[in-house]
Amino acid sequence: MKIIISSFCFVILLFVGCSDTKSIIDKKEATDQETDQQELITLFSDIKTEAESISCINANEWSFTAYGSKACGGPQGYIAYPKSNETSFLEKVTIYTNLEKAYNKKWNIFSTCDIAAKPTGVECKNGKPNLIY
Fold first, then answer.
1. Looking at the record's lineage, which domain of life comes first (predicted)?
2. 22 in Cβ contact with 98 (< 8 Å)
3. What's the rounded Cα separation, in Å, for the pair 28 and 83?
4. For 82, phi and psi rounded to 5 degrees?
5. DSSP H helical segments within 28-130, as ranges?
6. Dihedral of alpha carbons 32, 89, 127, 115, sign
7. How many CB atoms lie within 10 A of CB 1?
8. How confident is the model at residue 31 (pLDDT cuts 50, 70, 90)?
9. pTM of the full predicted structure?
């Protein structure tokens, strides 16, 4: 029951937005690391699904953004997205990034300290966006 309530609150915050995305992960009382990690996986899966839901025909209609938070600092990587839904998409990515930062702190996560290469643009190949480096 607690998991259902927790998941419900998480979904509500995604749709309503929140000024304190710092967090759901921080505010949960009795969660375990696996549950927190699964929430991150689910949210990133939703982000990827949204980004991949539109065919890439014209690269000018696409952009990219950093996502996630490495424990050592910096983003996990970059993701291409259609500009048609930019505001909503970037809000989800910001929520994800803040939640991952809180997760790393809460669970004392370690990571590599390499820096994800920043793309220079997006190109369309076979209907899919590809980052250009």
1. Bacteria
2. yes
3. 34
4. -75, 135
5. 33-52, 86-106
6. negative
7. 5
8. confident
9. 0.77
